Amino acid sequence: MKDKVLFKLFTGCDIKDEAELYDFVSERVFPNHPESRNRLVQQFEQRERLGSALISEHAVLPHAESDFIKESKVLVLQIKNSIPVWGGTPVAIRLAVVILLKEDEQFDVKKRISSFTRMLADEDLLEQLFEAEEDEFYQIIKMEE
């Protein structure tokens, strides 16, 4: 699967809290399916109750895997005016990396997503993702095949 199909960058997202983030994602993934939107939001909320999606003071990694997700995606959202609180914790979220994984996804797609999430441990890379334009974004995430 090509990176421009698997990954999608959203810049300048005007999102103020977790609920708005989940709504933003669900509306883009399931624009004509309110039931699927609700299921996705519920799944994000359930995951958050199991453990925080925070990966740094400035980034979150909400994720969901389900049979109603028909195509795996990694949505990267640059938050316009940072989210001040996440799960009751004072933060300044500037980046949300949302992983949507269809059930029984192919190994190579899971491997690509896993490689990308490991890259997020690099603080310098995270800093680049906060401000990257689309072309730069795809250069940053590009890996040797």
TrEMBL record:
InterPro entries: PTrfase/Anion_transptr, PTS_EIIA_type-2_dom. This is PTS sugar transporter subunit IIA. Coiled coil: none annotated. Pfam families: PTS_EIIA_2. The keyword Transport applies. Residues 1-144 form the PTS EIIA type-2 domain. Keywords: Sugar transport, Transport. It comes from Corticicoccus populi. Homodimer or homotrimer. Seems to be a monomer when not phosphorylated. It comes from the Bacteria.
